[in-house]
Amino acid sequence: MRSKLVFRILSPLMFLIVGFTISLFSFLSEGSFNPFVFLAFVFASIFELFFRKQKRLPSNLLSIICSIVLVVSIKTYFIDFAVMQSNSMAPKIPKGSIFFYKPSMFDISQGDLISYYVPSDSKNYVGEVEKVLDNDNYVVYRIGEDKKMTVSKDQIKGKIIYILK
């Protein structure tokens, strides 16, 4: 009886530790913490703790796979986030702010804040759309750096929908 209780507590705890370790490794290698990975393991832990009756390895794998699919689909299709790494958009988005963006880029218009990727720098940036060009290109302005650049539709990660300062 006692071993079942210990296993019932340790199994969800194991998911949390693995999720935190992967998120920490991501932070150390990329310089930014990605809580979506950790969130997947939190969902797996909750599933393990409350919804499972029997403890079998295939069920553990099923809970991990379902949780990861859920979090990845939310991140891919609905909302993603990033941390502002510089003062390029200050005072609108100060350095260290967390901003959430919608990966869909079909409704971008003049005045929108967008997140975009520059392959030559291998970095993500944030800018305000100053002008929409004819051929799916946008003129983007970064306030803090007083810099304009042309960004193609392929480089855009999404439209910023909320800023946590």
Question: Your description of this structure?
Answer:
The chain has 165 residues and is α+β, with helices and mostly antiparallel strands. The chain folds into two domains: 2-77, no CATH class; 80-164, SH3 type barrels, CATH 2.30.30. The protein has three helices and seven strands. It has helices at 2-30, 35-51, 57-77; strands at residues 80-83, 98-102, 113-118, 123-132, 137-142, 147-152, 156-164. It has a seven-stranded antiparallel sheet with strand order 1-2-7-3-4-5-6. Strand 3 (113-118) and strand 4 form a beta hairpin. Helix 1 (2-30) runs antiparallel to helix 2 and helix 2 crosses helix 3. The model has no long low-confidence stretch (mean pLDDT 76).
Primary descriptors:
alpha+beta; 165 residues; SH3 type barrels; single chain; 28% strand
Summarize the helices and strands and which ones pair or pack.
Layout: H1 2-30, H2 35-51, H3 57-77, E1 80-83, E2 98-102, E3 113-118, E4 123-132, E5 137-142, E6 147-152, E7 156-164
Antiparallel strand pairs: 1-2, 2-7, 3-4, 3-7, 4-5, 5-6
Described by strand count, sense and barrel closure, the largest sheet is: 7 strands, antiparallel
The spatial strand order of the largest sheet comes to 1-2-7-3-4-5-6
- The helix content is 40-55%
Order of helices and strands: HHHEEEEEEE
**CA distance, first residue to last residue:** 49 Å
Mind telling me the C-alpha Rg? 20 Å
Number of strands: 7
Contiguous uncertain segments of 5+ residues? none
CATH architecture of the largest domain: Roll
Could you name the CATH class of the largest domain? Answer: Mainly Beta
Mean pLDDT: 76
Shape: elongated
Strand content: 25-35%
Structural class: alpha+beta
Number of domains: 2
